[in-house]
Each structure stands twice: as C-alpha cells, then as structure tokens.
Design a protein that fits this description.
heterodimer, A: 527 residues, alpha/beta, 11 strands, disordered C terminus, B: 542 residues, alpha+beta, 18 helices, elongated, glutaminyl-tRNA synthase (glutamine-hydrolyzing) activity (chain A), ATP binding (chain A), ligase (chain A), protein biosynthesis (chain A)
C-alpha cells in the first residue's frame, strides 16, 4: 500500500481497502523505522493521527473532501505550520512555533491531507545536498536500495557500507527522501535554484517547480523572494498535477500570485507527440556533465523524435552568466531577508546583554551557520551604496537577458525544453563534502537555476538507473503559466521510460521490511 | 510581546520618545503655535539682522539660508500600509500588531488600497504629477523598533512627483500685507512607519511597542526653497491644513501624525550652497521655526569663526542601501483613458475619479471667506488656523444679524482669546455658536452695550446652560431705554462733579470722557455711551 502512488492510494481509501488511520499509522511506523535517513526534523504524530481520524469520519459519512483526503503528506521545514515547530534547520529558529499556516499548508489541510511532519533541509534552504542543516545530513534511501547495493557489491568489496551512504541532493532532501522511502505520498519542497528538482532527480521521484506566481509563497520562509516557489515532490507526474490543482491560484496574502481563478489540473494522456517541438539547449552540454546522464538525455531526445516530435537544438546564450548572476541576486536578498532575525521578536537570543548591538551580533553568530553568514556578508557587500550599481543592478540586467533567452526560444515555436536535471547521479556524502557549499551549489544548480530567474515551470522526471544503480532525472522546462502543458509532456515521457521502483529490501533488513508492512496491511484488510 | 531590549543602540534616534514628551501636555500646541507664527512672519533674508554677519570683518557679506523639509504624515486609515492591523493612537502597547508587523518569517506585505488613494489625493492637491507606475523598495537599517531590518518605501519611483505648495506669509506693519510664496515638492512617497522604542534608563533596558510599526506614511519632500524657520513653519502649517481638509492625515503633531525633518545650509548669495545639516524629528510646531533659526545662526557663527560645517550623517545610516521590494509588484494606477476594459473596480485605482472627489482646499476656502463676507485676508487665515473655528464662525453667521466683520472680531478676538487662555479646543467650548449668535443679536439690536456683551460672554463661560437673554435680565444689563431717567443720572453726575464740568467747559476734550465714564459707572454699564455723550453735551451747552 505504501508503495502506491497518491492517486492509487486515494482510490484505495475511497474503496475502503484501507482507512486513513491505518494508512497514517503505517506511515508513522515507517517514518520511525527509517529515522536514520534523517528525512524528518519533526514528526507530528499526534496531529497526524487526529487529522486521519477526522478524515476517517468523513469517509464513513461518505463526504470525503477529494483526492487528498486522508493522504499522508510531508512539508519542508521552511513552511510555517501553525502549532508545529518550524526551524529551517537552523539554531536561529529552533523552538520557533509559528502561529499561522503557510497558504500551501492550509490548502493541503483544507483538502483533508494528513501532515506527517516537517522535513529536513540545508539551513534556510541554502545548499544543494541537504547536508548543511543543524540537524545533520539527510541520507538518500537509494543508498540502501537493492539496486544500488548489488552494483556496489560487484564493484568493491569490504568497504564500509555505512560510511558510503549517498546524499539526497537539496535543499529539499528531506522531502525527497520522505517520498522516496514511502513514508508519505507527496511532500512540499521549495525551489529557488533547483532545490526541489535536484533532490527529486537524486531520489528517483518527480520534482515539480511551478511557474512563479502560480502558487502562494505566504508562509514560506524566504530564501530569494523573487525566485522562491513552493515545489511538489511525488512518485509520479499525475500526483504532482493533483497536488498542484490544490495549491495553485491567487492568494490575497501574496501579491505576486496571479489573479486568474485556479482550476483543477487534470492531465490528459498524450498519445501523439508529433505536434510537439522539443528544444535542446546547446549551452547545457557542459564538460562536467557525466557521460551517463548525457547519454540518457540524448536517448530521451531520440525517443521524442522517434515518436514524431520535432526535436531541435536551441540556444540560450546567456546561460553561462547565470551562476554568478544568481550569486549576486541571491546573496543580496538573503542579506535583506535575514535582517529580521535579531533575537527580539522570536527565535534564538544569546545571553549577552552588554548592548543591543552586541546582542544582535552574538545572536546572529550563534544562530546562523557559516553558509548563511557567508551569504549575508556577500549580500551586504553587494547592497552597499557604492557597489549597488556595479553588482545588483548589473545582475538584474543579466537576469533579464537570461529570462529573454527563454522567451526567444519559446517564441520561436519550441513547446518544451529538455535538459538534464543534475550533472550526475547522487554522490556519497564523503565525496560531496570535499567541496564547500558554495562551490557545490554553483555546480549543482547549473541546469536548474536559470529557470528560477525566468520564473518558468520545470519538472524533473526520473528516467533510468545509472550503472551504479542510482536514479537519473531529466528536466522539462515549459512556458510561463503553461504548467499543465509541461506536465502533460512529462507524463507522456514518464510512461515511456518506465522508471523502476526502488527496492528497499536491504533497508528493511536493517529495520524490518516494507513487505512485512505490506503483508500486515493485507492481513488487516482481510479482518 | 513587549520585548525587553538592551540599552545602547538608539543613540541618534529618540524620536519615538520625543514625540511623546514634546507636546503631550499641550493638546492643541500645534495649532496655537502656528497661529502666532503667522503673525510674526517675516522673511529673515529681507528684514532680520540675524543673517547679517554682525561682527564680520567683511561686513558687506550677507548670509542667505536654504531650508528644505522632509515631512512624514501618518495616513488616516483604519489599517496599516501592508497589514490588516488597526491604527489607533495610544492603544495598549503591542495590541495592534499583526504577524507581518512583527516580521514573522514567511509573512508578506499586502498593499492597503486606502493608503494608495490617500497618496494620490494628496499628490493631486499638491499639484503633483501622479506616476501611473510606482515601485516599492526596502531601505535597510538595524533598529529594534524596525522588526524586519528594513523599511518598505518608494525610493526609485515614488507615487507622486514635481508638485508645489503655496503658502502665505504676512508682512509689513500690523502684518496687513500677505505675500504668497511657493515651495516645490520633489516627491511624495508611501512608506512604513516604525515602532517605538522606550528607553528605561533605570533598569537599563529598552521596551519596544510595535503598534505604530507598519502604519502608512506619506513622506512629502519639499525642495530647499525656504529661507528661514518662519517660512518652513508656515509651509508645514499649510500642508497640515491641506492634509486635514483632504482627510488623508489627521496631521496632529502632538500625536506624532506629522513629523518634520529639516535640512539647512547657509551661503553667501550668488555663491554655491553651503554644507547642509539635518535637524530631525521636529514634531512640535513651537520648536520647528526656532530649531531651524537656531541652526541657521549656529552655522553662521561657525563660518564667521572660520570653522567648517560638518554634515553629521544620521546615526542609523549604515550606508546599507536600498533594494527593490520583491514581494510587491509595481503599483499601477489608471486614469479614465487608460483604464483597462472590464477591470474590476476593486482592483484598480482611477486617478480621475479621485480628482473629482477632491474637497475644497484651504486656499479656496479663504478666498471664499474674503469674497463672501468681506473679511480681511489675515482673518481668513486665522479662521482656518484653529480646528473647528471656521465651522463655528459660519454657524454663528447663519444665526445672527450682526455684521460679518463684527462676528469675525468677536470670534477671533474674544472667543478665541478665551479658548487660548484656558487651553481649550473649539469643540470644548461651553459657548455654542447659537449662543454667541444670540448674544451678538442683542448687541446688534442695542439691547445691551458692547461692554455688557463682554460681561455676558464671561458669564456664559461660567454658567453653562443659561441663555444670554437670561443673563442680561438677571443681571439687569439692558441698556437704559428710559431717556428721562438717563438725563436725571447725567444731571446728578454733573452736580456731583463741578470741577470736571468746569474742565469740560474750558475745552478739555478728555474731561467729557470722564463724565461719560462716571455716568456709565452709575448705570452699571447699562447706558449707551453715545447716548450719554449726546445728553451730556446737550446739558453742558444749556
């Protein structure tokens, strides 16, 4: 049951094959068993069970609320959740319990979704590995998959297995791991430069970044306001569309959401791709791209072509400026956004009371990690009066050029762009931390970040396993607010590639088995 | 959620405190201060010796002062600029604070339509160009009463620009000559107010009250077109009246709804402008003119003594700049021509509609008063200077047959004098317009003398609820209508004061006044002096 998609389990709930409380309990027990993955910062067990009971009552009365009623979901710990601690994986917000729900959280709850907990991330979502949070790194469930372990056994012997676990990617690694390890059916991430799509690719699931302005940011603790978008992580494209249908639409609390009334996103099954034009941006073929990912990318292009789509090479000439441009804009907004964390109204406050300035300084030194402090420092440098025109204004202009690259390509008749999501499959933690956060983020965001500059929708879809038995994802980028068209194409592609299900037997050998749970489920169903 | 905070940070900015202590004891300080300032009004450059270098070695060198103003007016609106919190003065601390006002992470600004309309209306009233597209920016500085660490303002592209404000200064003997001056308005921008820091020296802590944090402000930037404190104060007073007429701000300085920063420099005419300094948070009218003039004099003295003027930058200016506010899209306004077809009226603001709704401005009101009642220009200023006085005046006029000039004199001299003495506002007066009108009618019909009328007025002040007629009859203040009786009194007085009668007959012009006074005294002021004089003259010549 836990291995099913959201749509499947929703159907099972409707048919009474399982009740919301049973489903919730199963997920809770798996969350506990997979605790070593460190996917969750807070498990909201009591709240979840209560919500599941409410849902169960609705099902019994025959007025369930919709596709999400009774469905266990998880939320990245940078979304405000009323009454539930929201930490951003930072000392600064340890113990901070928001008095309100983020709009996206509220919309999930209004549809009867059951909130299992808050998922781990890089501190304040600054990172691409989910390794730099105060609660420790998230472990990629694929580290414990049968597929990966078998490949490793063939290659190397006698190595310490435990120390070779893989990163999830980030910064929404907790959400990706939670969905990938079957502890929930959908999770919210956030996506500022690829933070939803990157871990989705590494964890073998679908990671969707909606168009900027389609989904409310109210209650999302910001990284870069002008690029942040709540992201959706699910096991298949249809599920992402279902969740999007619930989240999308104008929010009076977020002035950057579009005014058009939201409509449900029902994806048709595309049978004919011959009218599609797929663009392959030539600038995305970089030397750092692993040959395996490159070959999956080209196979995917061939697939479209063989099915009759028009596949053309396109140019996004300003791509190479994206990283440095992002660095300036991101750190500047970070410096501004982080100014509110002064220890006065909420969050951490140090014991130093010599003066207000000393209190500010010590509070912020204790509260933020090096990555956050480094970005604040850089951002304040760019925002200095004497630097503003040379850095911030220029970066904004470059951003416009990058956005225009996409506009030009889409105006030339391209419907969807096809690119890699990441340079390679997930790497072991020990490998990953050889580089600092900044270098890593710059490398890992290379295919995903320009999309945020332009506010476009993009989705990472798992394609296949690498030689190492690890998932590889490819990214589709669509026109602004053509999220539905984008997902329709992604759904077609998903169906063609038939990405394998993760086999977590070894994981379960350590902690008991998914299949045991499955058995229990069927037993309980019989009773 | 009064967050105790440590002392030691807010050195340069005590305005939260200043606005409380400056004039809270004198509720109407703002208005009264300005009334007198208008009377003294003279341009320093032309008439005051202040700007002349008195002990200068180059005595021929005159100094000219250049004064510009930044005025912050709190917008009169039910809720704050970007949040739904209510706006009230003197509410319990931290009782009007939304999640956004406390800068809880994840909260976003939502622009208050009323504040935008107030800005547009003010811009139109001040002859500004209204920008159909304006932008919001963050201005960064660390202050405990600025919870987000930045203020949302309009630095790059404000809502209104290039306006003007006309104000009048009375000059000449008896300030009978009214000169109209104009100051250019650089821009009007929408921005957030900060909270208040209360420094508890005793316990060495700072208490934060966020009730005011996020209240909408109109920052009106006046170009340095003024040359002394008097001009600045008068311009501010005119702006205050305009804001009050529009209803876009209550503009009560005592409650901090109108706060003024001045930038000041001096130079020799014809030479480049001098280094300017800032005098901040002038939130009392009494101090505005004085502080500016003091600073002008200080700068002159410094320069006379061969010193330099140092521009002491604001203590909170960390040179951290501005950044676009990413959570607010550009603010777009329309006029009837550009209004998109089928636009939801709730979602758009039509500048032309606001133009149509503009009320009568103070300058127009004054002009009307002069035309309608034939009163003097300076009286038209005086009538508008006090809250509610004009309405009082007009209500009296409606109900009395007395001449408008008589009414003006009574309202501005006697009535206002009584109020000032007792530090009362017009609406606190125990004498209502209809009561005063009745009194003036009695005077007009010559039922009572002018002196008796003043006596009645005083009595009205003490014994609320009595009508002037009641007081007149109780105190027997009616003018003596019985001429024979008056003749008898006059005769008796003359009999009793032969020396004065003699003086009068010898041609001492003052002597008859003495006789008149004596008669009035005997009649308890109930006789009309002109009638007395007639009788006396008749009797003296007989």
């Amino acid at each position: 049951m836990l291995g099913r998609t959201l749509q499947e389990v929703s159907a099972a709930l409707k048919q009474g094959q399982i009740t919301p409380v049973e489903l919730c309990q199963k997920c809770l027990s798996l969350i506990k068993k997979t605790k070593f993955l460190n996917a969750y910062i807070t498990i909201s067990e009591e709240v979840a069970l209560k919500q599941a009971e409410e849902s169960e009552k609705r099902y019994k009365k025959g007025h369930s609320l919709g596709a999400l009623d009774g469905i266990p979901v998880a939320v990245k710990d940078n979304f405000s959740t009323s009454g539930i601690e929201t930490t951003c994986a930072s000392n600064m917000l340890k113990g901070y319990v928001p008095p309100y729900n983020a709009t996206v959280v509220q919309r999930l709850l209004d549809q009867g979704a059951v909130l299992m907990g808050k998922t781990n991330l890089d501190e304040f979502a600054m990172g691409s590995g989910s390794t730099d949070g105060v609660f420790g790194p998230v472990k990629n469930p694929w580290s414990y998959s049968k597929q990966y372990r078998e490949k490793r056994k063939q290659k190397s012997h006698g190595e310490n297995e435990d120390s070779n676990w893989l990163i999830t990617g980030g910064s929404s690694g907790g959400s990706a791991a939670a969905v990938s390890a079957f502890t929930c059916f959908a999770a919210l991430g956030s996506d500022t430069g690829g933070s939803t799509r990157n871990p989705a690719a590494h964890c073998g699931i679908v990671g969707f970044k909606p168009s900027y302005g389609l989904v409310s940011r109210h209650g999302l603790i910001p990284l870069v306001n002008s690029m942040d978008v709540p992201g959706i992580l699910t096991r298949c494209v249809d599920d992402a569309a279902t969740v999007l249908g619930v989240l999308a639409g104008h929010d009076p609390k977020d002035s950057t959401t579009i005014q058009d009334p939201g409509k449900p996103f029902m994806l048709s099954s595309l049978t004919d791709v011959s009218k599609l034009c797929i663009g392959i941006p030539k600038e995305y073929l970089v030397p750092e791209l692993s040959s395996e990912v490159r070959s999956f990318w080209s196979k995917a292009a061939n697939l479209f072509e063989s099915e009759g789509a028009k596949v053309i090479e396109v140019s996004l000439p300003h791509t190479s400026y994206s990283i440095v441009c992002y660095h300036v804009l991101c750190t500047s907004e970070v410096a501004s956004n982080m100014a509110r964390f002064d220890g006065l109204e909420y969050g951490h406050r140090c014991d130093i009371d010599v003066s207000t300035e000393a209190m500010y300084a010590a509070t912020r030194r204790e509260g933020f990690n090096d990555v956050v402090r480094g970005r604040i420092l850089a951002g304040n440098f760019f925002l200095l009066k004497e630097n503003y025109a040379n850095y911030f204004i220029k970066a904004q202009k470059v951003r416009r050029l990058i956005a225009n690259d996409f506009v030009n390509v889409f105006n030339s008749g391209v419907d969807v762009l096809l690119t890699p999501t990441t340079l390679s499959e997930a790497v072991p933690y020990l490998e990953f931390i050889k580089e600092d956060n900044r270098t890593r983020s710059a490398q890992d965001d290379i295919f995903t970040q320009a999309v945020n500059m332009a506010g476009l929708p993009a989705v990472s879809v798992p394609v296949a396993l690498s030689n190492q038995g690890l998932p590889v994802g490819l990214q589709f980028i669509g026109r602004a607010f053509c999220d539905q068209q984008l997902l329709t194409v992604a759904k077609w592609f998903e169906k063609q590639v038939q990405f394998p299900v993760i086999h977590l037997q070894e994981l379960m050998d350590d902690c008991s088995s998914v299949f045991e749970i499955e058995k229990l489920a069927s037993v309980s169903l019989k009773q | 959620m009064a967050a105790p905070m440590l002392r030691g940070c807010c050195l340069g900015r005590c305005w939260a405190l200043a606005c409380i202590d400056s004039s809270s004891r004198h509720g109407r300080g703002a208005a009264t201060g300005f009334t007198s300032s208008g009377k003294r009004g003279q341009s320093f450059v032309a008439q005051q010796p202040l700007l002349t270098a008195q002990k200068s070695r180059k005595g021929e060198h005159k100094w000219a002062a250049v004064v510009g103003l930044e005025i912050h007016a709190q917008i009169a609106s039910n809720s704050k600029l970007f949040s739904g919190s209510q706006v009230h003065f003197a509410a319990p601390p931290n009782s009007l604070v939304s999640f956004f006002d406390a800068s809880l992470p994840g909260t976003l600004p939502v622009l208050n339509r009323r504040c935008v309309e107030a800005a547009v209306m003010t811009g139109l009233a001040l002859n500004c160009h209204i920008n159909k597209k304006s932008l919001f920016d963050r201005k960064h500085y660390f202050y405990a009463d600025l919870p987000a660490g930045y203020q949302i303002t309009q630095q790059r592209l404000p809502i209104a620009v290039n306006g003007s404000l006309a104000y009048s200064v009375c000059v000449g003997k008896k300030w009978r000559q009214v000169i109209t001056k104009t100051v250019r308005i650089k821009q009007i921008q929408l921005e957030q107010d900060s909270g208040k820091s209360l420094h508890d020296e005793l316990r060495s802590q700072t208490l934060i009250d966020l009730n005011r944090a996020g209240v909408g402000l109109l920052e009106v930037v006046l170009e340095p077109d003024m040359s002394c404190g008097e001009e600045a104060a008068t311009a501010v007073r005119e702006l205050q009246l305009i804001l009050q007429a529009l209803g876009t701000s209550q503009a009560n300085m005592a409650e901090g709804q109108l706060r003024v920063d001045a930038n000041i420099s001096v130079h020799h005419p014809g030479e480049p402008l001098g280094v300017r300094t800032e005098v901040k948070n002038l939130n009392s009218a009494r101090f505005l003119a004085r502080a500016i003039d003091y600073e002008i004099q200080r700068q002159i003295n410094e320069l006379e003594n061969g010193c330099e003027i140092l521009n002491e930058t604001r203590s909170f200016d960390y040179k951290l700049g501005f950044m676009p506010e990413p959570n607010l899209p550009p603010l777009l306004l329309y006029d009837t021509a550009s209004l998109p077809a089928g636009a939801d009226p709730q979602q758009v603001i039509n500048i032309d509609r606001i133009q149509e709704q503009l009320p009568e401005l103070p300058s127009e009101t004054r002009e009307k008063l002069i035309q309608q009642y034939g009163i003097l220009p300076e009286h038209s200023f005086a009538l508008l200077n006090e809250v509610g006085l004009l309405e009082f005046f007009q209500n009296v006029i409606k109900e009395t047959r007395a001449e408008p000039k008589k009414v003006t004199s009574w309202v501005l001299n006697i009535f206002l004098g009584f109020l000032k003495q007792r530090n009362l506002a017009v609406n606190e007066s125990p004498v209502t317009p209809s009561v005063l009108a009745e009194l003036l009618n009695l005077l007009d019909r010559k039922v009572i003398s002018s002196a008796a009328a003043k006596q009645v007025f005083e009595e009205l002040w003490r014994s609320k609820g009595k009508t002037p007629s009641q007081i007149v009859s109780e105190r027997k203040l009616e003018l003596m209508q019985d001429e024979e009786a008056l003749e008898r009194v006059c005769h008796a007085v003359m009999e009793g004061h032969p020396q004065v009668v003699m003086d009068t007959k010898r041609g001492n012009p003052r002597a008859i006044n003495k006789l008149i006074g004596l008669v009035r005294k005997v009649t308890h002021n109930r006789a009309d002096p002109t009638v007395i004089k007639e009788i006396l003259e008749k009797q003296l010549s007989s």
